[in-house]
Amino acid sequence: MDSASVELALPAPAKVNLYLGVHAELDERRYHRVDSVMIAVDLADVVRVRPASQLQVICQPAAGFPQEKNTAYKAAVRLGQLASRVPDFCITIEKHVPEQSGMGGSSSDAATVVRALCQLWGLDPASEDVRRVAASVGADVPFFLNPLPTLLVGAGDVPQETFPAMDGLPLVLVRPAGPGVSTVAAYAEFDRAHEEPADPEPLLAALRAGDRAAVAANLHNNLDPVACKLLPADGEVKSWLLAQPGAVSGQVSGSGSTVFAICQSDAAAAQIAASAKARGWWPQVAHTTSPSAVGAA
């Protein structure tokens, strides 16, 4: 493909953690061992890539830090080094996924840049070299290269098992107003007082079987109490959310600050979102999705 003339626009989907198990022990890199099951949702940023005289990353609304610190910028530079190519592109990121929300927005943006440049440069996004580039940018980035429901191990950056798509599961996402939870702060608090994670096998079995009710019944996140301690508003949102008619189950996603609930129906999710908005929170009705539904924007 002639990358000098092609413009691409791709969605960068958010995710929620159906399972997050952080372990106390550290690996040789001094990272916590983390088991994570992530699933993509149809709330998405939009990443546009077009030829330019030099690499430029523009966020809409504007990011409050230099572009060189943006995960999308790092991904373009590192993939260029792998391919021996100069990433002369203007990358525009239309942001819809809130920052510090536990939904992987910046990681998904980086992965979407990798997917776009692989398409323009004729690279295989499924190759191990490309996966290593993605992992070097952030632990969640490899998941978004092929965002089927996936169990990731290691530091939460090594895909171990991929599950059949489970599209269309109705969710409501709710984030309290104000700053979110820093991942660094969440892990520091976890180190002070942690709980061992639950066995992920019941959830994994439910995903293998495509059993949606069993998936909803086996959500787990041992950073959930940490997020609620660091941001008491998360605890308020979670208690309120799980008490709403039509909310089946839910928890904090990642280290916060978004709390999600799996809902009985789209109508239930819409009603909960309307009630959350009236309380001054950020709500979003969403559905689980997968690569087959992640096409061009």
Walk me through the structure.
The protein is an alpha+beta fold and 297 residues long. It is 34% helix and 29% strand. It contains ten helices and eleven strands. Strands 1, 2, 3, 4, 5, 6, 7, 8, 9, 10 and 11 form an eleven-stranded mixed beta sheet that branches. A hairpin with a 6-residue loop joins strand 9 and strand 10. Helix 1 runs parallel beside helix 2 (105-121), helix 1 runs antiparallel to helix 3 and helix 8 packs across helix 9 (232-242). The longest helix has 17 residues, at 105-121. The protein is globular, with a radius of gyration of 19 Å. The protein starts with 7 loop residues before the first strand and ends in an 8-residue tail after the last strand.
